[in-house]
């Protein structure tokens, strides 16, 4: 009887209820639940299951290179970051307002960690997110022109609620890059949010793209309606290397003393 019921529930796309029906029947009998109470917990199971499945699907499509949370971020090592302002953007209100966030800082200062953390928060609030390096996005757009799939690929970067563009300025970009980057930025302007991480100050953006006129147009749209974080701290990676080096030196000294 239960097997037949489970199959019917799955046919009706009620997998959350189907997965918990045995336990819920036992629980209802043991606690003498009313029909209404029984239905309520079944519907709650279904809602939770759909929410979890939605998150898992959106997380996979987001293409994060790693899983980073804001709770793991060491603010004490980067005191230039205003924690209150960061908590403000963690509410994801900027996504509702179609605004953007820009992280500027030297390599290793936690820009990508913060960008991923904001992306994770957005996923938890049911937004669609896509993470990509700038160079990878521009490469994909460029090669899509060869098989006439350019506009379909472009739509991948336009259809999400939050587009995270990592490492702007880390690699020298080819001549065609300014056109494609402008296409993405201009079409998302006031229609969808972006997070951009870069190691270049705004004054240096003209050096990133070959076309200085387009560079100015890109900068104008990026900066407008954006929350900007300038990180002036040291590299987390350099800190880790130093800690390892200090530890090795300490171990070597202890071995010398024991000889």
Task: Please explain how this structure is put together.
By secondary structure, the chain is of the alpha/beta class. It has two domains: 2-62, no CATH class; 70-233, P-loop containing nucleotide triphosphate hydrolases (Rossmann fold, 3-Layer(aba) Sandwich), CATH 3.40.50.300. It has twelve helices and five strands. It has helices spanning 2-11, 15-31, 35-62, 83-89, 93-96, 111-124, 134-144, 150-158, 177-188, 205-208, 212-223, 236-258, and strands spanning 100-105, 129-133, 162-168, 193-198, 226-231. The protein has a five-stranded parallel sheet with strand order 2-3-4-1-5, sandwiched between helices. Helix 9 links the parallel strand 3 and strand 4 (193-198). Helix 2 (15-31) runs antiparallel to helix 3 (35-62), helix 3 (35-62) packs antiparallel against helix 6 and helix 9 packs parallel to helix 11 (212-223). The protein is elongated, with a radius of gyration of 25 Å. It starts with a helix and ends with a helix.
Features:
single chain; 259 residues; alpha/beta; Rossmann fold; 2 domains; 5 strands
Strand tally is 5
Major beta sheet summary:
5 strands, parallel
What sequence of helices (H) and strands (E) makes up the elements? HHHHHEHEHHEHEHHEH
Oligomer: single chain
User: What global shape is seen?
Assistant: elongated
CATH class of the largest domain: Alpha Beta
Radius of gyration using CA atoms only: 25 Å
Structural class call reads: alpha/beta
Proportion of β residues?
A: 5-15%
CATH third-tier fold name of the largest domain: Rossmann fold
Task: Give the uncertain stretches in residue-range form.
Answer: 241-246
- CATH architecture grouping of the largest domain: 3-Layer(aba) Sandwich
What distance lies between the first and last C-alpha atoms, to the nearest angstrom? 76 Å
Biggest sheet strand order reads 2-3-4-1-5
Helix content: 55-70%
- The domain count comes to 2
Give the averaged pLDDT, no decimals.
Answer: 89
The CATH homologous superfamily of the largest domain is called P-loop containing nucleotide triphosphate hydrolases
Number of distinct helices? 12
């Amino acid at each position: 009887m239960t097997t037949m019921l489970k199959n019917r529930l799955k046919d009706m796309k009620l997998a959350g209820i189907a997965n918990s029906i045995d336990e819920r029947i036992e629980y209802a009998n043991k606690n003498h639940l009313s029909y209404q109470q029984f239905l309520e917990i079944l519907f709650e199971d279904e809602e939770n299951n759909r929410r979890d499945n939605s998150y898992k699907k959106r997380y996979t499509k987001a293409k994060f290179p790693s899983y980073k949370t804001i709770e793991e971020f060491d603010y004490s090592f980067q005191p230039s970051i205003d924690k209150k302002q960061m908590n403000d953007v963690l509410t994801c209100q900027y996504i509702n307002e179609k605004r953007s966030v820009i992280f500027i800082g030297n390599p290793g200062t936690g820009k990508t960690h913060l960008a991923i953390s904001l992306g994770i928060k957005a996923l938890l609030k049911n937004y669609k997110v896509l993470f990509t390096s700038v160079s990878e996005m521009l490469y994909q757009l460029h090669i899509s022109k060869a098989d006439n799939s350019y506009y379909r690929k472009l739509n991948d970067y336009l259809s999400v609620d939050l587009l995270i563009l990592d490492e702007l300025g880390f690699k020298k970009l080819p001549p065609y890059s300014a056109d494609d980057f402008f296409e993405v930025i201009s079409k998302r302007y006031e229609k969808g949010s972006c997070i951009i991480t870069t190691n270049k100050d705004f004054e240096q953006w003209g050096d990133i793209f070959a076309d200085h006129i387009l560079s100015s147009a890109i900068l104008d749209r990026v900066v407008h309606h954006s929350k900007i974080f300038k990180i002036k701290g040291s590299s987390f990676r350099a800190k880790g290397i130093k800690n390892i080096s200090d530890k090795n030196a300490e171990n070597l000294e202890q071995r010398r003393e024991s000889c």
